[in-house]
Amino acid sequence: MQNQTELPPETNSDEDDQAMEFDLSSTTALDLTSFQLHDLDSVELPSSLTELDLTANRLSKLDPRIANLINLRKLSFRQNLIDDAAIESISSWDSLSGLEELVLRDNKLMKVPDVSLFKKLLVFDVSFNEITSLHGMSKVSSTLKELYVSKNEVTKMEEIDHLHELQILELGSNRLRVMENLQNFSKLEELWLGRNRIKAINLCGLKYIKKISLQSNRLTSMIGLEECVALEELYLSHNGISKMEGLSTLVNLRVLDVSSNKLTSVNDIQNLTRLEDLWLNDNQIESLESVAEAVSGSREKLTTVYLENNPCKISKLPSYPETIFPQYRANRFKHICLEENGFRKPAPNLEWLPYPPFQAPSDYIITAAEVDTARVLLE
Known about the structure:
There is one protein chain. This protein is of the alpha/beta class. Helices cover 11% and strands 12% of the residues. It has a domain at 223-315 and 331-338: Leucine-rich repeat, LRR (right-handed beta-alpha superhelix) (Alpha-Beta Horseshoe), CATH 3.80.10. The protein has a 14-stranded parallel β-sheet with strand order 1-2-3-4-5-6-7-8-9-10-11-12-13-14, with no helix packed on it. A two-stranded antiparallel ribbon has the order 15-16.
């Protein structure tokens, strides 16, 4: 337990108990993570607690003493065995009306519990349960800023449109087919909807969102992102997108992941001067030169480019990575990957090239004139 003091060997057991009681009385945070507790009978719960973390135990019911912790602000039952019947009593815990964070992640819930008593709730997490519907979310306080309902069985985005203060919404790994009821989230900054069944992007006019994840859905188009001018990170991998479009207005974008799609070329990102990470791997991109043209506006910012598992090849020497990306030549790249694109390491007469080595097509014969040209370009 937190704030316990180790006593000298000669101290008797009565003094031990008194010392422990004294120490716990002023404890504000109690972390019992991974204690494998089946109940809290042996645990003292001082009234001074503001944070109680019961993560990774074997709890199947709620200890009624928790209801008396009037100063409690954060409560976590993450990774326990709590079901709908066990959580019901929380709806009558009037003394905990000041609770700000409630975590019920990874339990056995099949519906959203009644948390209407908590009028100051800021964070609510019911991810990794067996919840099939968001029915009950309408009772959650409109003060909520972070909502996590990932890895459930939810089929519809509903009863959340009153959450005007919401900043983070996590609904990944559910069974959603349509993006809806987002129009009131004017303060939303992060939207995580990966691993669903969504076919079209509909952000309902969200202009201030900074991070969007729609990975592993059923998208065939990027259309719908144009108004998200504050967007900084966009994750669209593992979809069926065949064309890059609607991106030119996203001038604040730093991370773009469109890997594992059906792209044949790189387009509409010339204006993205702040782009740092670009993931294009596992597509059908045929020309490295087209990539060079597409990133012309962000050449000085790019630090990571993934292009492996594409059919693209270099058609002539001056278009090798050091020419396309100046940072690559100056060793300022975190990573540039061209593996599985038909490249090979340079011939011995090109060992003078800076690290990382230039990779030319396996069937390309490098002439002495081209070596001289390359040297001039690098100087």
